[in-house]
Specification:
Helices cover 31% and strands 19% of the residues. By secondary structure, it is of the alpha/beta class. It is built from 15 helices and 18 strands. The chain has 2 domains: 19-77, Urease, subunit C, domain 1 (Roll), CATH 2.30.40; 84-382, Alpha-Beta Barrel (TIM Barrel), CATH 3.20.20. The chain has a 5-stranded mixed sheet with strand order 2-6-16-17-18, with no helix packed on it. Strands 11-12-13-14-15 form a 5-stranded parallel sheet. The chain has helices at 2-17, 59-62, 91-98, 101-109, 123-134, 151-154, 212-224, 236-248, 269-278, 287-300, 302-306, 311-316, 334-343, 360-366, 369-374; strands spanning 26-29, 32-33, 45-49, 52-57, 71-74, 79-82, 84-89, 113-121, 141-146, 169-171, 173-177, 228-233, 260-263, 281-283, 321-322, 392-395, 412-417, 420-424. Helix 3 (91-98) packs across helix 4 and helix 8 runs parallel beside helix 9 (269-278). A hairpin with a 2-residue loop joins strand 17 (412-417) and strand 18.
Length: 436
């Protein structure tokens, strides 16, 4: 027994002398930290080490990781959240306009975006991105999604390994557009648009941009290559076609292929159950409500306008749904997207679909946690928990603790990629003079 006690003491002594609390690179204190994880309680401090979250918890607990070279940063009452995704951007077009890879990325970083998606690109644009990656010029993680017309040229190209990052560049799959937009009556609807002299003809529902047989063949080819397909579909008829193709291809959620219906804007509630069965993911954009809400009512009627972008219903059905699909070459106004998801207000001040408004917590998760899942990155991003990437945004206020209408006034103070600051707002109160 005496020998056993001595052995226990020696083991304990060895544990005391072992450095089981390696020095952090940075520690953040004195602010609100929203990890967006359902498994964490109140967090008041966080430490980063080697580009990942090292520890979270109370200030006393996290400060035990402070070393001689650890930088301790005072959040000064500001709020830290996981970095945002930009899921439907046309980054290559923006890069062409700016002709400066660093400045092009900083315009996204200034919105708190740490992972951006470059969708619908051609092989030339993809090769240009690869050159920037090989030159170690990427500040952000870039997920490239070429147009499906490039599949034969790229699927056997040894330069690219689908689904894996190489110097912050990853090719995730392929994209195609099945319909257009309601603003010009090209969203393919199951029921006709409201009667209007601008319609091409009476009982107009629009049409698909390619025959179903062609769409099915493309979808089949992508599935056979075990890649993701990102399908632009605004109208519920386009979504019906995707669902039909999914069943014909014998897709199911257990296959975990995570094909994405980009926009999913005018989907019907009964289509959500098919998303669940087929393993489809809806990538929404609630900012359209502000920009086009009144026009939606005029073109589609109040019922369909109210039901658009049903992220809340998807989440209630335990279906991952992101809110990151702002289209175009410019970076999305992420705070505005957050505000729009919580308020669903038009430019004229009318509420569209009051029952579908998200809580601020849900809205934040739709732009980070669920977005990470959409791109098979939920194991490394989307939450500020130990072991995941130290991708974070510092906001001027806590979206979950202020009046919903004030969310749009929040500012992105700083953007952190893998533990390093890549954007910091200028101390001068002038949004046009943001500086790194």
């Amino acid at each position: 027994m005496r020998y056993l006690c001595v052995l226990v003491l020696l083991v304990l002594s060895g544990c005391d002398s072992t450095d089981d609390t390696p020095d952090a690179d940075t520690i953040y204190i004195n602010g609100t930290i929203l990890t967006l994880s359902a498994h964490t309680e109140k967090v008041t401090a966080i430490s980063f080490k080697n580009g990942k979250v090292q520890a979270i918890g109370t200030r006393i607990g996290v400060m035990r990781h402070q070393g001689d070279i650890t930088e301790v940063i005072d959040l000064d009452g500001n709020t830290m959240i996981p970095g945002f995704f930009a899921g439907n951007s046309e980054f290559s077009k923006h890069l062409e306009q700016t002709a400066d890879i660093e400045q092009a990325q900083l315009s996204f970083a200034s919105q708190g975006i740490t992972t951006l998606v470059d969708i619908g690109i051609n092989s030339t644009e993809l090769v240009a991105l690869l050159q920037h990656a090989n030159a170690n010029e990427l500040l952000l993680d870039i997920i490239a999604i070429p147009n499906v017309s490039e599949i034969e040229a790229l699927v056997d190209n040894d330069q690219f390994t689908f689904g894996l990052y190489n110097n912050k560049l990853k090719v995730a799959g392929f994209s195609l557009a099945l319909d257009g937009d309601a603003s010009d009556y090209t969203a393919w609807m199951a029921y006709p648009y409201q009667e209007n002299p601008a319609l091409p003809k009476q009982n107009w529902r629009s049409e698909p941009q390619l025959p179903f047989s062609t769409f099915y063949s493309v979808f089949q080819l992508v599935v056979e290559n075990e890649l993701q397909l990102f399908i632009h579909a605004m109208g519920d008829a386009a979504i019906d076609a995707i669902i039909q193709a999914g069943y014909d291809l014998k897709l199911n959620a257990e296959q975990n292929q995570r094909h994405v219906v980009v926009m999913s804007r005018y989907m019907r509630n009964n289509q959500l159950q098919h998303y669940t069965k087929l393993g489809l993911i809806g990538c929404f954009d609630t900012s359209n409500i502000y920009q086009q809400g009144e026009d939606d009512i005029e073109k589609l009627g109040l019922r369909r306008a109210n039901g658009q972008s049903p992220i809340k219903q998807a989440l209630e059905d335990s279906l991952p749904a992101s809110n990151i699909c702002f289209p175009g070459p410019m970076a999305a106004d992420t705070v505005f997207s957050l505000w729009s998801a919580v308020n669903r207000v038009t430019a004229e001040g009318e509420i569209i679909g009051s029952g579908l408004r998200l809580t601020p917590q849900q809205a934040l998760q739709a732009m980070s946690t669920h977005a990470a899942f959409q791109f098979f990155e939920d194991g490394s991003k989307g939450e500020l928990v130990p072991g995941k990437q130290a991708d974070a945004v510092i906001l001027s206020a806590n979206p979950t603790a202020i009046a919903p209408g004030l969310i749009k006034d929040i500012k992105v103070i700083e953007t952190i990629k893998q533990g390093k600051t890549i954007f910091r707002r200028s101390a001068i109160v002038d949004d046009s003079s943001d500086a790194q």
